[in-house]
Amino acid sequence: MNRVVMKFGGSSVATTDKIRDVAQVILNRKKTCDQVVVVLSAMGKTTDNMIKMAEELSKNPSPRETDLLMSTGEMISASLMAIHFKSLGIDSVALTGFQAGIKSVGSHRKSKIDSIEPQRIVDELRAGKIVIVTGFQGINASGDITTLGRGGSDTSAVALAAVLGADCEIYTDVKGIYTVDPRVRKHAKKIDQLTYEETLEMANLGAKVIEPRSVAMAERFAVPLYIALNTGDVEGTYIRKEDDMEKNVITNISKKDNVLLTIVNESFGKESRITECLKNLADGDVNIDMISHARDKEGNQIISFTTDLASKALVEEILSTMEMDFEVVVNLSKVSLIGSAMRNQVGVAARAFGVLHDEKIEYYEVSTSEISISYLVDVDKENQLVNAFADEFNL
Amino acid sequence: MNRVVMKFGGSSVATTDKIRDVAQVILNRKKTCDQVVVVLSAMGKTTDNMIKMAEELSKNPSPRETDLLMSTGEMISASLMAIHFKSLGIDSVALTGFQAGIKSVGSHRKSKIDSIEPQRIVDELRAGKIVIVTGFQGINASGDITTLGRGGSDTSAVALAAVLGADCEIYTDVKGIYTVDPRVRKHAKKIDQLTYEETLEMANLGAKVIEPRSVAMAERFAVPLYIALNTGDVEGTYIRKEDDMEKNVITNISKKDNVLLTIVNESFGKESRITECLKNLADGDVNIDMISHARDKEGNQIISFTTDLASKALVEEILSTMEMDFEVVVNLSKVSLIGSAMRNQVGVAARAFGVLHDEKIEYYEVSTSEISISYLVDVDKENQLVNAFADEFNL
Fold it and tell me: Is residue A23 located within the same domain as residue A164?
């Protein structure tokens, strides 16, 4: 007996015709898998339309009621899918978050899955049904419906796969994960397999195929992940624990546009001002990144960090309020090389720096992790660097 | 401390603007009532649109999944109403059928309320909140969402009022219950008060203001009902237990269009054939009415009954299959006089028959109950008879 959890996003089930198409993909998969659980997002723009109505009634809609409102989107897509299966003579059942036993904790609009009591799902699978579960939602200890925030349906799918001992397949509108964004490099290769760590690093560094949160959960519970096109007929990318497979040293190049560099000159020379500054930025919910620190000849501290363009105005406001001196550089891009084999291979950094030298590309910052190197460069050098890296590392 | 359950139908909450208007009616009512529970139907055509999608996917959509699908309509209207209240600074909470403790039994699409566990509603009311409950839905012993069938939201409201010891107010797009359909008689009077029995009789005899089912429940649990316009500024109709109030002998004239008279000549003279015929009609879900029975000079049984036009083809098919002889008369109307005081007053029947004689209106059938008399007449005599009755009984 084998089990799989298949997840389809909102664009894959945007119309009743698309629901029919996805049903066929599920039925094809069912031929080689005994028990299939399907996790669905809300149809296309359903959730957006609901939010629009809520915002007509309130500038700041109540999170509890917004969760109840939004949770109906997945109930609609899930029940329509089960209705379609039954019309084909295939037994199926649509389960809401609470019916599927998905218990959540934490704030509305961004709750987390606390536990899953899968008895009903298991019973329905044993009865031979295709089980359709609403993604993105759970029920908390007060009996209130909560939503799981960004990437919530992926998280639902991974959590169900973990508790059911199943593989998790995420179907989307891309063919898998690529070595380089196919829009930048025409002949970018699809990656056949990745480790969780590499995928996480890529997701955190700007690749948009899957939310880091669900990858982290898959890693924690060792759920095999598979990311593929929602037509089901193109081989996708497998994400697993690291094993002995021979691998390219670099598996992926990511880029994150519109990164902003801010430099703070701390002429007062007091550590506490820097700490206060970082604390205020954190309180303002500003994500900062690539932090570097130095001292000039006069003993002044110099700290620099990056953030995204959306946060620029807020950062400037916070720093101005603190009467800090700072400089801003915009139109930058962070280009990252990622590969879990990097840690076992010497000379990767040397080759990377060599590429920047040969291409005469200046960098504003560099940061490294065990499995990645990131360079902050002018945005108009971004594509040149991505292609040069791809040539150097044979991607 | 006083409590009220206010119910608003789908047309009253069809848009976010209408939700705002209804919220104002609720707030006005809150000035004179400590604890307010609001029961809402789905917004306007929401449910129809959902059924349409289901029918795109299945000729005969699964009842269980259709219930789940349809139940989202009330979740949307209820959460939007609570969002609006909270944006006005008024504490409110939207509860689904299962959160409100509404336990259902019976088939999907036409389940019944089995019991209500009102603890959460009571807690929320005590916390000072306006509690918005989704109408039309409950949860059964399997944990599945069911809908309550036609008039389900009225039933939800009455059942909640019963368990909460509250009055039940049904807000609609008419000003209350009228002595005669205002479209037939321009100066029809709104009725200030009615008994449950009278209301039931009227609902069963064709008045469309409220479903008989919810009136019967209100009677069983002695829930005071009030039916009024959804603007809240016109006095409506109170429905209560019969008391000593002085009343007009006739409180209402109802009519039911397109009633069909079918006459069956049972030339075989066997009781069992009639019984079989009635059984087959019942199996075919045909509602029959005004049954009369006689024997002709040759000893043949003659049975006649009425049904609605929609059932005509089915009745003909059933009778033909049984090889029964029958005649059909179409274009008939059943006009009914209703008044609970009728039982204590002599001569009402005589006055009613007198009206038909004076107006030279022939009738095909007559039937009586303790509190009503109904005549089956040609549909083109209907308005003449309704007006003549209204003159005779001062309505």
Answer: yes
